[in-house]
Amino acid sequence: xxxxxxxxxxxxxxxxxxxxxxxxxxxxxxxxxxxxxxxxxxxxxxxxxxxxxxxxxxxxxxxxxxxxxxxxxxxxxxxxxxxxxxxxxxxxxxxxxxxxxxxxxxxxxxxxxxxxxxxxxxxxxxxxxxxxxxxxxxxxxxxxxxxxxxxxxxxxxxxxxxxxxxxxxxxxxxxxxxxxxxxxxxxxxxxxxxxxxxxxxxxxxxxxxxxxxxxxxxxxxxxxxxxx
Length: 228
Fold this sequence. Notes:
2 domains, six-stranded parallel β-sheet, Rossmann fold, alpha/beta
């Protein structure tokens, strides 16, 4: 069966976990209080803050209380869509101001370009918001990689360890599941993708990655692409 599409995770797969946890998260945590105070009146930000109130079940939370909740969620690495979207808005300033560039492994950038030239459709699925995904690939160490991708998915399509999320992606991209390859470093995500019928490969870049029952590659050059 020929691979027609590849869906890739970001953290630990195309990009270093350290970049996310040692650069992006601290930057967002430092900038978040002032960002929320200055932007809470903007309709899009106000809607996200209402989502935070709903998830925290504190429907009357003040702006200062929302800041406390969000900072706590950052410390917990909580996969809240509202938090991830707010972080994306904050990171935009950092990228555009040149405070940092998006880390992409050299092998990932090279293979993504090659696969695109092979007419394989490329998609991203990450717990980070679509805004954050586009910023990382748009301001990456390897240049603007956004033209390589046909689409992006975040937790609004579903959580990454839920089978339904991958079924939703299959519906969205309109390609049979057995012609789609999902790449991730997390075995439970790959389990869910496989249960939805996708092909899988686990990226094992670090020694502490828990290896599951999936084909393994230590970098993108080792990923096997059926039919190519």
